[in-house]
Structure formats: structure tokens, C-alpha cells
Design goal:
Helicase, Ruva Protein, domain 3; five-stranded parallel β-sheet; 481 residues; 3 domains
């Protein structure tokens, strides 16, 4: 795939021959070129379509190159510009660079030098826009603590965390595997007054029953075979801080009784001991099971359930917060690019639409693994729909030989039709550089009808190059635990 693939360049020069020469050279290198004969015309084009770079003459009647750079920076802060001029001098070069130009090339220019400078400017501009969007997306709209999410479902979780984090109330976090329950627990702890004290996690489903009691409460020397020394348990280690009981639904009923007493009395006895030990510990528990159902089936103690379920927080599955997919993809893309030395430039609109439409049964953990795999296998290019795993692309309507192919495992008709419609609209918008009149013509729709569909589906908020975050670096981990 060409490095210039999908990159659009605005060329601004009042000299017809220069515009034509630049257009010919850049299109020959694989770029999409839009010419403009004046600074005023260029501003109108910048307002109507996104560009990866602009080249401008320095001396032009009306709006000159320096003024044009200033105006474009107001409209698109991350868009880089290269100044071309026949008046090559130190003063004009310095003025151009101070106004925000990426570089300065004097006419007549060397073709190889021009193409190398253009490629570097586009790459640098991508990083600059990334920096700008990072600052914008670090607002509360997109994150709470180290959690990433722009959906209303995520904000509902944030609001509960904000209200209860700085209390000592017991919290029960529920949700499917991979939705980020542990991260919610960590966010609660590190936004509380206990943040300077330890957060001690224990996975109740990963430790055999006969060892779990000792892990929780510790044991005295000689309490059982192999107990060569006294050992402090997780309750004692968490004194003054928070104890996170993950997968609490897997705990054996016998041990549930002892846990209930420890929570109620704030004291316990080590295995093999007889001296009560008092602790100041906040309890946060999590499970991917339906504890109320387990209570009805006599698999989980009712009194323990009510002790744990003081503040319930349900973390919704990723399929119920699809607006978070793009932000999470951007986060993982950035992380894996850096961690694995890859240079994947991003996901196309069609690929991102398919990722957003997929149900993600493994939730954020599955999304994270998918992005990692794609970065490794497709590194160094824009990832399109053809690169996605078959289960993601093929679950949508596939047009082949003029017919619709039904997947072997069936599909949701209404959802599939909606996804197919989204994909067609996004293709038209991408091909027309988001000029809605042209997109409507490509789709054979009235412009008003298309605008209504875009608004109803939220496509512009999610996919428009002007508002979409492509590579967002957010400190900490997303909801992926």
C-alpha cells in the first residue's frame, strides 16, 4: 500500500503553471490534490473538506502565504503547511517558519526534495494533530481517572464512581468478563481518601478453596502441613486501604460464612489462631455472575450478598457502549505502535464502522487483542476492512455476485441492514471528502435526507475527520481489565 494512500493535499498558487506542475507531480506520487488559485479560495476549500497538508505560494495578491497559514491554523490547528516562493531569502523563510509553516522551499524546487519534504510534513502533521486531540480528549467528556469512554453508558458509571469513591461504602461491581471491573475498583480506590494506603486484590476463583482461607486471613505457624511460619493474609495487608475481592461468585459457601463475619465485625482470626485481629478495610467485590440468581439457587449466601451489594455498579458490555470503540481503538493503536515499534497509521472509516458494529462478546479485552494482532500483521499502513478478522467483517451483509450472502450462523436482520446502510453512507462521505452534496449524489439521495440519516445515526460525531480522534494517548489503562 502506498504511503500516500488517502492523503489529500491543497495546493495554493496564483501561477497556473506552478499549480499544474505541482498537481502533476503530487498525483504521480499517489496523493490526492486539490488546487486553489488564491488564499481566499483555499480557505473555502479548507472549510468544506479535510486535508493532510497544504502547499502555498508566499507572494500572492490578496491573502498572501503568511496570512493564509494564520487563517488555516485557526480552522485546523494540526494541519501542516509548506511555503513555496521564488523570493528565497532568509527573512521570508524565518517569517514563514514563525507563522507556523512546517518547511520552506524556494522555486525552482528540486522534485525529490519536494516529495521527501511533503512526506515528512504529512507524518509530522499527523503527530501534531494527535497532540492537539490528546488535550481535547483528556476532558471529563472522555475519561474518568484512567478509564476511557465517551458513551452515555460509560458516563453513568463515572457518575456513580464520583459520588461513592470518597466514602467507605462497600461496592459490588458486576459485568461480563473483559468489561473493566478491576479498573473500576482501582479508580474507586485511587479517588478515595485511602489512595495512599494499599489496594490489595485477590481472585477468589483462581485459588483452591483450601488455600483461599489462608490467602484471605493468613495462618499461624504449624496451622497445617507446610505452614512453617506465620503468614499475614490479604485482610491484614489491606489495613487502612481497600480489599478487592474479584470473582466473588466463585467462593465456596463455607468460606462465605467466614467472609461475612469479617466484613460485619471488621475482625477475623488467622487459620490455626485464636486471637481476633481487627482491621480497617474497605471492601470492593466484583463478579461476572448473577449473584441474585445464585442466591435463589442457594449457591450464594443471601446475607453476604446484601452486605456486598450496598453500592452496585454495573459495567455495561462493549456492545452497549459502541461510542467508546473508536477511542479504545485509538488508545490501543497508539500503545501497540509504541510498544512493538510499528507504524500503523490508523483504521479506515469502513474498518472502524465494522469494528463499531461488531458485538465484541469478549468485550474490551477482545478488542485489545484484535488491535494488537492487526498492528503486528498489518503494521506500517492504514488498516482497511479487508484486514479485519472474518468474524468481524463477515457478520455484516456481504455483497457478492449481485446477491446477499447469509452467514452460516444467521444474523440480526434489522441490525445488519442498518450496518450496511452505515457502510454505504460512510463510503460515499469518504469518497466525497465529506462534501454532503456530492455524497448525496453518489447515493442517489436528496441532500436533506442524507443529512438527516447522518445526524440520526451519529455518523459525523463518530467518523468525521474534523471531530474523530484517530490516535489518542491516554495515560493509564482503558476499561480492559
Amino acid at each position: 500500500m502506498s504511503a500516500a494512500n488517502g492523503q489529500s493535499i491543497l495546493v495554493v498558487d496564483d501561477d497556473d503553471s506552478v499549480r499544474e506542475s505541482l498537481t502533476y507531480l503530487l498525483e504521480g506520487a499517489g496523493y490526492q490534490v486539490v488546487p486553489a488559485a488564491s488564499g481566499e479560495e483555499a480557505l473555502k476549500l479548507v472549510d468544506s473538506a479535510p486535508f493532510s497538508l497544504f502547499l502555498t505560494d508566499l507572494k500572492m495578491p490578496g491573502l498572501d502565504g503568511i496570512d493564509l497559514i494564520d487563517r488555516i491554523r485557526e480552522r485546523q490547528p494540526g494541519l501542516n503547511g509548506i511555503v513555496l516562493t521564488g523570493h528565497g531569502s532568509v527573512d521570508s523563510a524565518v517569517a514563514a517558519m514563525k507563522s507556523g509553516a512546517y518547511d520552506y522551499i524556494a522555486k525552482p524546487f528540486d522534485v525529490d526534495e519536494l516529495l521527501i519534504t511533503v512526506a515528512r510534513a504529512i507524518e509530522f502533521g499527523s503527530l501534531k494533530r494527535e497532540n492537539f486531540t490528546l488535550k481535547r480528549t483528556l476532558r471529563d467528556k472522555y475519561r474518568f481517572g484512567n478509564m476511557i469512554g465517551a458513551s452515555e453508558a460509560s458516563h453513568k458509571v463515572y457518575r456513580i464512581i464520583e459520588r461513592v469513591a470518597d466514602t467507605d461504602s462497600t461496592v459490588l461491581i458486576t459485568g461480563e468478563s473483559g468489561t473493566g471491573k478491576e479498573l473500576v475498583a482501582r479508580t474507586l480506590h485511587f479517588n478515595s481518601q485511602r489512595r495512599e494506603r494499599p489496594l490489595i486484590p485477590i481472585n477468589c476463583g483462581a485459588i483452591p478453596e483450601h488455600l483461599l482461607e489462608s490467602e484471605l486471613f493468613g495462618h499461624e505457624r504449624g496451622a497445617f502441613t507446610g505452614a512453617a511460619a506465620t503468614r499475614i493474609g490479604r485482610f491484614e495487608s489491606a489495613h487502612g486501604g481497600t480489599l478487592f475481592l474479584d470473582e466473588i461468585g466463585e467462593m465456596h459457601p463455607t468460606l462465605q460464612v467466614k467472609l461475612l463475619r469479617a466484613i460485619q465485625e471488621r475482625e477475623f482470626t488467622r487459620v490455626g489462631g485464636n486471637k481476633p485481629i481487627r482491621v480497617d478495610v474497605r471492601i470492593i467485590a466484583a463478579t461476572n455472575q448473577n449473584l441474585e440468581q445464585q442466591v435463589r439457587e442457594k449457591k450464594f449466601r443471601e446475607d453476604l450478598f446484601y452486605r456486598l451489594n450496598v453500592i452496585p455498579i454495573e459495567v455495561p458490555p462493549l456492545r452497549e457502549r459502541r461510542d467508546d470503540v473508536a477511542l479504545l481503538v485509538d488508545h490501543f493503536l497508539r500503545r501497540f505502535n509504541e510498544g512493538k515499534g510499528a507504524r500503523t497509521t490508523g483504521f479506515s472509516d469502513e474498518a472502524l464502522a465494522l469494528l463499531t458494529a461488531y458485538d465484541w462478546p469478549g468485550n474490551i479485552r477482545e478488542l485489545e487483542n484484535t488491535v494488537e494482532r492487526l498492528v503486528i500483521l498489518e503494521g506500517g499502513c492504514m488498516i482497511g476492512p479487508e484486514a479485519l478478522p472474518e468474524k468481524i467483517g463477515q457478520r455484516n451483509v456481504t455483497a457478492a455476485m449481485g446477491r446477499v450472502v447469509l452467514p452460516d450462523d444467521g444474523l440480526n436482520f434489522d441490525a445488519t441492514v442498518a450496518e450496511f446502510e452505515d457502510a454505504l453512507i460512510l463510503q460515499a462521505l469518504e469518497r466525497s471528502k465529506w462534501v454532503k452534496n456530492r455524497a448525496a449524489q453518489l447515493l442517489g439521495l436528496n441532500r436533506t435526507t442524507l443529512v438527516e440519516k447522518i445526524k440520526k445515526k451519529g455518523l459525523e460525531d463518530r467518523f468525521s475527520p474534523k471531530t474523530r480522534t484517530r490516535q489518542v494517548e491516554v495515560p493509564g489503562s482503558p476499561l480492559s481489565q
